[in-house]
TrEMBL record:
InterPro entries: LDcluster4 (IPR041164), LOG_family_nucleotidases (IPR052341). It comes from the Bacteria. PANTHER family: CYTOKININ RIBOSIDE 5'-MONOPHOSPHATE PHOSPHORIBOHYDROLASE, LYSINE DECARBOXYLASE-LIKE PROTEIN. This is Protein containing YHS domain protein. The lineage of its organism: Bacteria, Candidatus Harrisoniibacteriota. GO terms for cellular component: cytosol. Pfam families: LDcluster4.
Amino acid sequence: MATKLTRRQHLKYKICISGAADTGHCAIDASEKAEEMGREIARRGMVLVTGATVGIPYWAAKGAKEEGGIVIGLSPAASEAAHVKSYKLPTDYHDLIIYTGFEYSGRNLLLTRSADAVINICGRMGTLNEFTIAFEDEKPIGVLEGTGGTADELRGIVGKMHRGPGKVVYSKDIKELLDKVVAEIDKEKNNKGVSRYTRG
């Protein structure tokens, strides 16, 4: 007989992918890793949340959608027209996009707070902004090291800030990083036993 899920168990974990829109400074395989991260998030039945932008988040969205996953975007623009024409941002590979109208800094706050955890892949200043918001909010954060940009600097930055490690986990391996992130979310939600989102 199937086990009846509680209301909390019905809620899918939401994972925000935070990363560089311009990937010119990223590791040569950063976009490929972002796409695979999106695929792995979808395989585990989790929801991908992005800033509805280009670069790393776009590749993650592509991977998730091609794997049959759900992708939600939060745009800095106030409308679809502004999103496409003014910001020149894409709408593909998303199931829905929420037009916040709060520009990039306001969007970043809503983006990180709408997710259960944030995963950093490469990144620049905007990604660092999302990281610091998530860190201050004591949100689980995963850092995919070896992808360049902020992802390869965050361990050192956290170590020098004298604020403790926070809920930040690190790995160069996609599946291992997701396992660590899921474990942190489980702790927050007081889930017991093996999570349904941990790889089998």
